[in-house]
Amino acid sequence: MPLTKRPPLQLRRWTSVLPACLLLIAWIPYPSGTYVHAAEQSFTAAHVDSGRRSQVLPPTLDIGVAGIAVDEEKKGRYVGEFAYFEPSLIGRAPEGVEELKDGEKKNMESNPGVTKHFVLGRSELRRRASIIREDDFTDESAHPDNTTSGTDAARDKRQSGTTVYISINTCRQPIPDVPIMIDPPPQLRMYISTSTDNQQPGPNKDSSLATDPIDLQGGAATFSLQTDSDVYIGVFAPNLTKGWTGSYGYEVAASTERFYHSYNGTDPFLYMIDTDSESALFITHNITTKEDDTEAIEKWLRVSDIPFSMYMFPKASWGATGFERSFCGIKESFEANSSSTVKVDRAMTDRYGGVLPKAQFHVQGLQKNETYVGFLVMDGNVSTDGLDLSNNLTVGRGGKVWKQFTWKTKADDSCQVIFNLPFCSTIAYAVPSSPQFRGNSTALALLYDSQAQSYYQNFTRSLAQIPCDTTATAQYSLARTCTDCAGDYKEWMCSVLMPRCEDWTATDPWLMPRNVNARFPNGDPAPGPSLFPNASDVRKGDEWEEDDKEDGEREYPKDARRAAYAKSRNPLIDEAIKPGPYKELLPCEDLCYDIVRSCPAQLGFACPVGPAQKVQYGSRDRDGGRQLRCNFPGAVVDLNTVRGEGSRRWGGRDVWVLVGWVVGIAVVGSW
């Protein structure tokens, strides 16, 4: 069969082009935005309507987003916002704007005078909103009789928007290039906008802001808002003034759950136990709040990776000025400026009053007579899964910083901190020491502890002669038992055998001078001959006897002064340890009263009275308890505040009434 002849090539092209041209001519008169609209409408899980388009989705998909597209009329362009696709595939951040992910930090370097921009997209907020909706449905199903209020609550959440928590920490900053710089370095400034009119907020674009520009304080700032829009953030690094050089490094984060970085400026969340010339001992506040929850307590005590850390700097030359509220700033400054000799040992403990867990820090390698600035921080990247965080300790991944604090090391080597003793487990403070035990606190603690344990064994033999396990009518007391007696005796004995040591140069009037005829550890002459008119009499003179004897001052008989000043309370101290001159914070008198109250009268315990009491025991502060005027087990210091197990037991009116009729039977404390 003959082949059919095809039309020429030119004719075939015109038959395709001509209809396309006609269609184009018909389209031109219509505006470009006529057929594209974005609006929130009601929809079902299988059908979403946007303008004139409809999209049929599989019925098994649960669409939790209203609206598919956004019409930016002022920009004249269409930016996709789809719930089921990454923004990087459909709607990208504007050029020069860094995209933030929910709950993830963005590290940034910036030169002075430069503004860096960030955005948390609506898609990140929608993911959070979908989680909230699921929680709402769960709540409603759990309370079928309260579906109306549950539905209303869910609607309120959707209408109010998602809460966005924005935080920033400065990690590195310019440094001075002059020998002396008094002013702190300039701080970063943060701008926040939720308006599409201002997608790059900063010093030159400060209109339509969600709040006034925020200047960082101490290297940190936080801000929260509720929105369903994109959140635009600008961070401005200021121009440097004369005397500064370098650039800035910082972390910025936005989260829909909590602040990524946090700061507590109300208190340090830390107590100081005591210091010596080269170390200091600290504990945190109670981490949990329920004493009867033994499982939660044991979990904390078994923690291997402790989330708390402590950083410190010499106050005269510390490198964290401008970072006081920044976790990364404090950490990096410590690592860059800390001496290699400084060491911090961390542990969990339930000592120092009560049974609740605490974090303990033993700081070593410090300089004598030096003032330090310290910070407690909590690392949000350390897992706390399964741990009780009831004491407001839930933090973001960027960590938490508590209020800074200061302390000063002792000037002399006559005192040394001991703790974690096997027998006298409540003892934790500085005791009389000497250079032979410098750097070996374990040997010093063992020397004291072994003596106390030996003395206690002798006491238990005497207590064993008392019929403790007998009928109620035959017991020596209906209020106290032999167990109470043994416990109170142990606390008293440990406290008097291990006196709390203070520097010889300390000036508090309630301190007792000791060992005044000994030379100082550095070889300086003994202070006795120069301080006292008659060295052989070892007395301070008669000026105290002429005073009005206000609270804290004492009138000592000459004989009592001679014995008290010339030697230590415990003979072992002068014979085996041989410290230089020091001052003692006397044991609290209620330690003695507790023994008299708790122990059988057959043991003959009573407390000294009059001048003899003044050289052996001290009294608690009766002006609100803000000064540590005497020593007791569990005593700790925080900004001149005293705390410890004894504070909830001792010093009450009932103790004083009991003491009124038992003193004078025997003398406890003839040390």
Automatic annotation (TrEMBL):
Comp. bias intervals (Basic and acidic residues): 551-562
Top-level taxon in the UniProt lineage: Eukaryota
One Pfam match: Mid1
GO MF assignments: calcium channel activity
Region feature (Disordered): 135-159, 522-562
One BP annotation, GO: calcium ion import across plasma membrane
InterPro entries documented for this protein: MID1/Yam8
Matching PANTHER family: AEL197CP (PTHR39142:SF1), MID1P (PTHR39142)
Protein name as catalogued: FZ domain-containing protein
